[in-house]
Amino acid sequence: MRDWLPPQFYALKHMEDVLSRVAESFGYRRVETPVVEHFEVLAKKAGQEVINEIYYFKDKAGRDLGLRFDMTVPVARALSYSLDMPRPVRWYYFTKVFRYDEPQHGRYREFYQFGIELVGSASPRAEAEVLHVLAESLSAAGAADYVVKINDRRAVDKMLEALGLSAYRDVIYRALDKKLKLPREEVVAVMTSGGVPRDKAEKIYDMTSEMPLQEAADHLTRLDQSLGAHYAKLVKYLDASTGLGGFRFDMSIVRGLDYYTGIVFEAFAGEYKLAVGGGGRYDDLLELYSGVKTPALGFAIGVERLMEAVGLHNVEKPLDYYIYIFDDEAYPQAAAVAKKLRSAGFSVAVELGEKSLKEAFEYILKIGTRYLIIIGKKELERGVVKIRDLQKREEYEKPINEL
Ligand code: HAM
Q1: Which pTM value belongs to this model?
Q2: Which of 186, 250, 341, 379 is at 20 to 30 A from 93, Cα to Cα?
Q3: What is the pLDDT of residue 209?
Q4: How far away, in angstroms, is 75 Cα from ligand 1 center?
Q5: Cβ–ligand 1 contact at 281 (below 6 Å)
């Protein structure tokens, strides 16, 4: 978990503004939920790996609670109380989530996710829209060199069925999920140690290769006619909105979360090694909370990772005005000037009476300040202030009533 000191916080805030603007421009509206959920709600369809990462505790009444590990589950829960809400629902979030992950580079235990959820549509246009918002978000954040790797869990399941390996689905998913991180030998070893015959494990490794998204429909048609037809449409829509640059089809993308049922994808930015985002379709999740089957999909971006990938670390926010007075006599004047400037929208700090002019000057250079206002005895008598523009290195006087 990390502290966000002001320059880092303003960098985060900048990300929040940029990403929110993208989501809002597609008609998504912001949602927030409690960080605490019933453990049972969180654990319903997370999958064992994620369940192990849930911050779990009992409250004073002995209830089993946990901190949310993502926003998809809280959104699904919240929507189960609003079944009459007109569909599709377009929501987005920029907020903290928690995972008891092994802390390392790019892996925090408390981190921010920006994401969207599009609930109530099974259309390939919904998929094209979500991928389009993802692409726009990454571009707007400064990662125009994104790569989004797309797959479909149904395609992997069909392949396993054809190879007679459906019984090994879990271990094969786990192995494929490591394909981008581990060498071939180790990925194959994950499968063989789970009981998959070696020749078949190698076959799966080789069959799950990457290809241009344009080839996905043909490839999928060979596994399943209707899946191929669905992707032919998706690719057509996505091409119209994004030109398909940056999108790839990659059969090794399966994702760690258990709730996915169809399309899944992961996003990368430039040279940055870890995924900056991920998402997919989870058509069975809402039913777990509401009893009503509702198709849905979305994505989330790891904000810290994206900031790291685009090199956004600090945004300095200098003070507009620092008012220096030599003694209490000028304090009413300083207070009046400060009030005037603040109400005009500027940030203003008044000297606390503990620094010499030289010390105050050194201080404001360090904290970053645009203007220094000095009100001395002479200025007081003449009803003016002395203004030093620290950027232009100019000094001039101005009557107080003209400020
Ligand atoms: P996820 O892939 O688990 O998906 O997380 C999304 C993104 O959060 C990741 O791509 C990564 O950038 C970031 N992330 C994950 N774990 C950490 C960590 N420990 N520290 C820093 N960043 C991290 C989800 O959470 C799904 N809810 C996405 C989704 C939305 N699917 C459908 N709708």
Answers
A1: 0.95
A2: 250
A3: 86
A4: 15
A5: no
